[in-house]
Amino acid sequence: MELYEQIREAVAHIRSITGFQPQTGIILGTGLGNLVDDIRISQEIAYRDIPHFARSTVESHRGSLIFGHLGNHPVVVMAGRFHYYEGWSMQQVTFPVRVLKFLNIERLIITNVSGGINPHLKAGDLVVVRDHINLLPEHPLRGENDERLGPRFPDMLHTYDANLRARALAIAKSNGIRAVEGVYSSIQGPNLETPAEYEMLRRLGSDCTGMSSVPEVLVARHMSLPVMMLSLISNVSFPRSVIRETTVEEVIATARAAEPHMRFIIKELLQNT
User: Fold this and answer.
1) CB atoms < 10 A from the CB of 121, how many?
2) pTM of the full structure
3) In whole angstroms, what is the distance from residue 258 CA to residue 256 CA?
4) What pLDDT is stored for residue 59 in this prediction?
5) How far apart are CA 129 and CA 1, in angstroms?
6) What's the chain's Rg over C-alpha atoms?
7) Does an H or E element contain 97, and which?
8) Does pLDDT of 132 surpass 70?
9) Does an H or E element contain 98, and which?
10) Is residue 273 within a helix (H) or strand (E), and if so which, with residue range?
11) How many other C-beta atoms are found inside a 10 Å radius of the C-beta of residue 161?
12) What are phi and psi of 230, to 5 degrees?
């Protein structure tokens, strides 16, 4: 079955369960799942029950699509994402974004945790991503292009929505939340980077680095879906003298401690959208 038909089948299944119409899609990263607690849930659908969806295998990822209201704003939330390092293809990793687009969302907010490689960043800081460096070994748009989904050669100049970025930074500043604009780089994982790799990424112009999000951004851009990415710094990885061994438990703990700031920005942002 071709991709377009797979999308239509997944959407039809979701619509057979709920007629809820979200305006904004949100992807929740590792340790950031507590945003769900703020949602008045209308419907929750497990990924395993949606045709052609992969399964989230990462600790702290709930693995379901949640429809409801964040404040008064209708949202659909991916409580858990898929990663290339889990063994999924890039098409499987990004399939949910295509489904969300076909559910007629107007914008996509992507969250993640990352290692800070700008020496001015501290654990718990937020980066409002203005650009990215893609170092992943595969591409979700590779292969035959379907013009019903998007153009063969999508332009990446205005990938990250400038209005959403400016508003997020203004909300952070007016509420005393440490947040800066920056460049996110994406690598395959699942191992963390070596000290030499952190230094390379910094020299390339990256402010923070992680193992996700860019594939979803590429597909959103392919479908002309406005995107904002918020990255929470879970550990400081540059310069070499400050690097220490980091466990996934520590990453999750840092993310959960700083998550209220990210939740606040997203809620405030959508309140007047």
Assistant:
1) 23
2) 0.94
3) 6
4) 56
5) 35
6) 18
7) helix 90-102
8) yes
9) helix 90-102
10) none
11) 18
12) -115, 125
- Tens digit of each residue's pLDDT (9 = 90 or more) over 64-98: 999 999 999 999 999 989 999 999 999 999 999 99
Measured distance CA(23)–CA(10) in Å, rounded: 18
The length of the chain in residues reads 273
Domain residue limits, the chain:
3-271
Asked if residue 32 lies in contact with residue 259, where contact means CB atoms within 8 angstroms, the answer is: yes
CA 184 to chain centre: 11
pLDDT of residue 57: 61
Q: At 22, phi and psi to the nearest 5?
A: -80, 150
Task: Note the pLDDT tens digit of each residue in 178-217.
Answer: 999 999 999 999 998 999 999 999 999 999 999 999 999 9
Helix, coil or strand: residue 183 = strand
Q: What is the CATH number of domain 3-271?
A: 3.40.50.1580
Burial class (CB in 10 A: 0-12, 13-18, 19+), 225: buried
pLDDT at 255: 76
The stretch 143-150 carries a mean pLDDT of: 96
Backbone angles phi, psi at 55, to 5 degrees: -120, 130
Of 136, 121, 129, give the one whose Cα is nearest residue 254.
121
